[in-house]
Amino acid sequence: MGPSPSPPHRPAPPHRPAPHRRSRSLATLAGHGRTQCLAAAVLALLIFSADAFSPLQGAVAVLHTAVVLLVAISHGRRAVMLTGLACAALTGGAFLAGHMDDLSEGAAMRLAVSLTAILITTLLSLSNRSARTAMAEQARILELTHDTVVIHDADGIIRYWNDGAEHLYGWTREEALGQPCQQLLQTAYPADEVRQALAQAGHWSGELTRVRRDGRRIVLASRWLARFNGQGGNIGIIETSADLTEQRRADAERQRSEGRYRAIFNAAGFAIWESDWTDAFRVLERARDLGGGDLKAGLALHPDLIRQAGQATRIRAINAAAVRLFEAEGAEQLLAGSIVAMYTPSSEAALVQVFAALSAGERMVEAEGQFRTLSGGMVDVVLRVTVPPEDEDWSRILVMALDVTERNQVQAKLAQLRTELAHVSRMSTLGQLAASIAHEVNQPLSAIITYGKTGRRWLARGPEHAHEVEDCLQHVVTNGTRAADVIARIRALARKAPPKTDTLVVEALVAETVALVGREVQAKAIAVRVLCPSDLPPVRGDKVQVQQVLMNLLMNAIQATAAQGNPLVDGDTARDITILAERADNLVRVSVRDSGGGIQDVEPATLFEPFFTTKADGMGMGLSICRSIIEAHGGQITAANNDGAAPGSGRPGATFAFTLPAAPEERAAGDGVGESGGMHAA
């Protein structure tokens, strides 16, 4: 039975560095082997000589067994077998040399006894050698194991101490052997339980604590096996132990980490849930196969797999914020179900985006979607789906959802207000152009009246003048169409309608806008030049809004240029505005360059701030609205003073420019720039 626990006491023998026992023992064994082999050879020759040439013929032959035993101590099976055969041969040779002439029955009997003794000794040595080899292998295994192996006798004195014990406990083998095991290691264990288990079953397994040489206490998983002699008496214990200290520390840290995670999970102010997507992963693999290796293609061909994969997800844990988000009575209403089942059809694109990104190996993906709550309401959420590093089968997918319903509603209202404000701005601009508009409409109407009266006079002269009447009517139609076009452009700017994205030809848009302000530039004696490449790509945007931006910049340029005086009075001929459209990578840049006084005493970026104005009667909303429109189209708007002064004026002027993304389908390729449009001058 195991020894009883002793009072904590730890002897402190002087510490010595562990010697290289293996290399030293191997060298020692090799030396001993050679010595024993030489001694065996000498002994065999002496026995042969005594047997062959002394009066003790036959009596000493049995001593060859000592030769076999001597060789068996340090040599293998083959050497033992050869030694046995050699000893038998020497015995036979000595017998023939001494009894060739006088072969008696007694001599033959002594020969037989000697040969039998040599044979039995050889066989026993071979058997013993096999057992020793097996024991040596077992001892080698004990040395190789990383676990501690300690053998102590019935009194608890250490009799064996392997390398694992040296490494874990800190004492060398020389220091540990002969020491009381439980006192040396200050073992704390259930002594009564151990004693009872060893007595009844012969072994015990459990946990205990010990103290290393450096004073650190460690936790061990230990297994004790009782050793018994032939009479069944206890002669000691073999124990193996493995260090659990680091594992326990890691387990404790993992539990603390999981506790913190759960606390954050449950206390978070936004919705979080943990899902098992294992079955969804299999559905997506099938979709990938159907798409020839392309998941999105497979889902496009079989859209039913999208909802099938979504419904295959299962919620494992969900926090209180998610319960409130989906208006559930409790977490049990959502557990083991699928949040994806509450997706609206409009959010399937977001679901495909998430599936495709995760299948491509991404560990985190964000997407915005819309859910239907359990009470039938609608919520907009931004989803962040994360695959933990150790989760390769999608069994613990973490999903976080941020409710953006209110944000989207506010953005929708802001967009509506922005649209209404832009409409008001357009109406204000049209009010400034009232005289120009009236002129643009009056000109074709006056022409219609003139041609109508002329046609009536030709009709009064008789049928032979039908050709002249037809010509007058053609002019009436042309001018009527011209008036209708002007009214249509005005109505397009004046109408209050939601934005509509179309493909826009920049050259035509610029020409149409210049036509609307033609009367203004004529009245103020300003020249307008339009420079537009013949191969400029189209852009994508709302025609009314983009034209509003261009008209606003053009009107500002007209006012800035006109404020510098009348060229007919002061002789200044540098009153012009240049509209340049050009390509910049994947963008189209439209700039309006004036020859006014430039931007003075203010940072250019400040001009686009709401309610900032340099005009006495301005509201400060025009350029702010322009910036909102351009940024909503994916572009930028800038302002800067021109480099140098306009020729003959000493005024640098300013350039306002905006960019818009080029449409995917380009009208033509190339970078050549040519001048188009006309020069409008007073």
From TrEMBL:
<protein>
    <recommendedName>
        <fullName>histidine kinase</fullName>
        <ecNumber>2.7.13.3</ecNumber>
    </recommendedName>
</protein>
<feature type="compositionally biased region" description="Pro residues">
    <location>
        <begin position="1"/>
        <end position="16"/>
    </location>
</feature>
<dbReference type="InterPro" id="IPR004358">
    <property type="entry name" value="Sig_transdc_His_kin-like_C"/>
</dbReference>
<keyword id="KW-0597">Phosphoprotein</keyword>
<keyword id="KW-1133">Transmembrane helix</keyword>
<dbReference type="Pfam" id="PF02518">
    <property type="entry name" value="HATPase_c"/>
</dbReference>
<dbReference type="InterPro" id="IPR001610">
    <property type="entry name" value="PAC"/>
</dbReference>
<dbReference type="InterPro" id="IPR000700">
    <property type="entry name" value="PAS-assoc_C"/>
</dbReference>
<feature type="transmembrane region" description="Helical">
    <location>
        <begin position="56"/>
        <end position="73"/>
    </location>
</feature>
<dbReference type="InterPro" id="IPR013767">
    <property type="entry name" value="PAS_fold"/>
</dbReference>
<dbReference type="InterPro" id="IPR003594">
    <property type="entry name" value="HATPase_dom"/>
</dbReference>
<keyword id="KW-0902">Two-component regulatory system</keyword>
<dbReference type="Pfam" id="PF00512">
    <property type="entry name" value="HisKA"/>
</dbReference>
<feature type="region of interest" description="Disordered">
    <location>
        <begin position="1"/>
        <end position="23"/>
    </location>
</feature>
<dbReference type="InterPro" id="IPR036097">
    <property type="entry name" value="HisK_dim/P_sf"/>
</dbReference>
<dbReference type="InterPro" id="IPR035965">
    <property type="entry name" value="PAS-like_dom_sf"/>
</dbReference>
<dbReference type="InterPro" id="IPR036890">
    <property type="entry name" value="HATPase_C_sf"/>
</dbReference>
<keyword id="KW-0472">Membrane</keyword>
<dbReference type="GO" id="GO:0006355">
    <property type="term" value="P:regulation of DNA-templated transcription"/>
</dbReference>
<feature type="transmembrane region" description="Helical">
    <location>
        <begin position="80"/>
        <end position="100"/>
    </location>
</feature>
<keyword id="KW-0812">Transmembrane</keyword>
<dbReference type="InterPro" id="IPR000014">
    <property type="entry name" value="PAS"/>
</dbReference>
<dbReference type="InterPro" id="IPR003661">
    <property type="entry name" value="HisK_dim/P_dom"/>
</dbReference>
<dbReference type="Pfam" id="PF00989">
    <property type="entry name" value="PAS"/>
</dbReference>
<dbReference type="GO" id="GO:0000155">
    <property type="term" value="F:phosphorelay sensor kinase activity"/>
</dbReference>
<keyword id="KW-0808">Transferase</keyword>
<dbReference type="InterPro" id="IPR005467">
    <property type="entry name" value="His_kinase_dom"/>
</dbReference>
<feature type="domain" description="Histidine kinase">
    <location>
        <begin position="436"/>
        <end position="664"/>
    </location>
</feature>
<feature type="domain" description="PAS">
    <location>
        <begin position="134"/>
        <end position="192"/>
    </location>
</feature>
<keyword id="KW-0547">Nucleotide-binding</keyword>
<keyword id="KW-0067">ATP-binding</keyword>
<keyword id="KW-0418">Kinase</keyword>
<feature type="domain" description="PAC">
    <location>
        <begin position="204"/>
        <end position="256"/>
    </location>
</feature>
<dbReference type="GO" id="GO:0005524">
    <property type="term" value="F:ATP binding"/>
</dbReference>
